[in-house]
Specification:
Elements lengths: L2 H7 L7 E2 H9 L4 H10 L16 H10 L3 E4 L3 E4 L1 H12 L7 H6 L2 H19 L12 H14 L4 H16 L2 H8 L12 H8 L3 H20 L9 E3 L4 E3 L8
Antiparallel strand pairs: 1-3, 2-3, 4-5
Helix pairs in contact: 1-4, 2-3, 7-8, 7-12, 11-12
C-alpha cells in the first residue's frame, strides 16, 4: 500500500502526528509507545489492520506529502496536514466510508479469509463447468487443504446455486454499483481471472490503495455476514487481539 496515501487518510490538520508511530499502529507493532500514540490519535481500533501489507518507508512517504504541499514536516518525522492536504483527505475518505469498518480487519484476519473465499469461488465455478484443468489460486498449504476438504464434503449440495445466491444478495445489499464492481473484480472463476488493484484503479479512477482498503472493508462485511451463520464453512476466524486462531470444522450449513 502507498504509505503517503495512508498518512493523508489518518493525518490531522490540528495536530502534529508521528509518521513512524502511525505506520507501526497500522502494522500492529505492539509496544507501549505505539499503543499510547494509537490512543492519542484515536487509531487504536485499527491497530494491526494492515499487518499483511508492505507499507513502505515513512521518510519517503512524508517527503512526498511535503513536496506536494499536502503536509508540513518537522524533525522526528512529525507531519501536519495543510489545507490542501485536508481537501485531499476528505476526497480519499469519501471513497472508503465508513472507515470504522477497518476495525473488523484489525480484529480478524480478513486477508486470509478473502483468499479462502476467492479460492472457494474459483473451485466451485470451475466445477460447475465440469472443468478440472485450470490454474488454482495459491493460498498456502493449510488453507488450500481446508477449502479442498470443504469442497469434497459439500460438492453434491448445489454449491454453485448457493454461491450465486450469496453473491447476488451481498452485492445488491451494498446499494453501490461501484463497490459491487470492485468486489466482483477481486474474484476468480471460469473464464475470468479477476483484476489487480492497479488494473482496477485505471478503470475506476481511484488510487490502488483505496481499492485495497475497499476490498478489506467489503470482505469484512462478507465475513461478518457469514460468521453469523452457525456452522458455515467460511466462518473461520483468527482473533488478532488474542493472537489465537479459532479454526472451525468445514461443515457448511448451506
Amino acid at each position: 500500500m502507498d504509505l503517503s496515501t495512508l498518512y493523508l487518510i489518518f493525518g490531522d490538520a490540528n495536530q502534529d502526528r508521528r509518521a513512524k508511530a502511525i505506520k507501526n499502529i497500522l502494522d500492529g507493532r505492539r509496544t507501549v509507545s505505539n499503543l499510547y500514540w494509537g490512543l492519542e490519535y484515536g487509531l487504536l481500533p485499527y491497530f494491526g489492520a494492515l499487518h499483511d501489507f508492505d507499507l513502505g518507508d515513512e521518510q519517503a512517504a512524508v517527503d512526498t506529502l511535503n513536496k506536494a504541499g499536502l503536509a508540513t514536516v518537522s524533525d522526528g518525522l512529525l507531519y501536519r496536514l495543510s489545507s490542501r492536504g485536508v481537501d485531499q483527505q476528505k476526497k480519499l475518505q469519501a471513497s472508503i466510508t465508513p472507515l470504522n469498518e477497518l476495525a473488523t480487519v484489525a480484529q480478524y484476519d480478513i486477508v486470509r479469509f478473502s483468499r479462502r473465499f476467492i479460492f472457494a469461488v474459483q473451485v466451485v465455478s470451475e466445477y460447475s463447468y465440469s472443468n478440472n484443468r485450470y490454474y488454482p489460486q495459491t493460498i498456502g498449504f493449510f488453507d488450500d487443504q481446508l477449502i479442498k476438504r470443504w469442497f469434497i464434503q459439500n460438492k453434491q449440495r448445489n454449491l454453485s446455486g448457493y454461491f450465486h445466491q450469496l453473491l447476488q444478495q451481498f452485492l445488491s445489499g451494498l446499494e453501490n454499483d461501484q463497490l459491487a464492481d470492485i468486489f466482483a473484480a477481486s474474484l476468480t472463476g471460469h473464464g475470468f481471472s479477476g483484476l489487480t488493484e492497479d488494473q482496477l484503479a485505471v478503470q475506476t479512477d481511484l488510487e490502488p490503495t483505496i481499492i485495497q482498503l475497499n476490498w478489506l472493508k467489503l470482505y469484512s462485511r462478507l465475513f461478518l455476514r457469514l460468521k453469523k451463520r452457525s456452522g458455515n464453512a467460511f466462518a473461520i476466524t483468527i482473533d488478532r487481539s488474542h493472537q489465537t486462531s479459532d479454526v472451525r470444522e468445514c461443515q457448511a450449513n448451506l
